[in-house]
Amino acid sequence: MDVLIIAGSRSDLRVVEKAEKVLRENKISHSVEYCSFHREPKRLEELVKNSDAKVFICIAGLSAALPGAVASYTEKPVIGVPVSAKLSGLDALLSIVEMPEGVPVACVGIDNGANAAYLAMRILAHH
User: Fold this and answer.
1) Is the pLDDT assigned to residue 86 strictly greater than 90?
2) How far apart are CA 119 and CA 100, in angstroms?
3) What is the CATH number of the domain that holds 65?
4) Does the pLDDT at position 127 exceed 80?
5) Which of 27, 67, 74, 107 is deepest in the core (most CB within 10 A)?
6) How much is the pLDDT for 62?
7) What total number of domains does the chain contain?
8) What is the DSSP pairing of strand 3-7 with strand 78-83?
9) Residue 43 sits in which domain range?
10) Using the 8-state DSSP alphabet, how is residue 60 labeled?
11) Nearest-angstrom CA–CA distance, 117 and 80
């Protein structure tokens, strides 16, 4: 599998669908999991460490800890997609881009699952 999309909640489906549409159209193998870092930290760690994905797309709103948590479990590229839930998504955006040094996470625009998929494809092209 090339890309694993992890969304923090099923309420993020509209953003997940944007990423999946681009990946499907470009015949990129992928799968989707729903897992909240806050509610299921052990499950998330197992998902990431046992995944053969080359790139992770993490879709999360509010405190948006998911992309950073995934990046802490892997050396593979992680792309964060902030979701507009509260504060028009700015809270999630800032949570994703302000990762500590050594735990890099790429970030696309708020609700922009399509750009996350396009970025994943560019990463895969150089993998």
Assistant:
1) no
2) 22
3) 3.40.50.1970
4) no
5) 67
6) 85
7) 1
8) unpaired
9) 3-125
10) E
11) 11
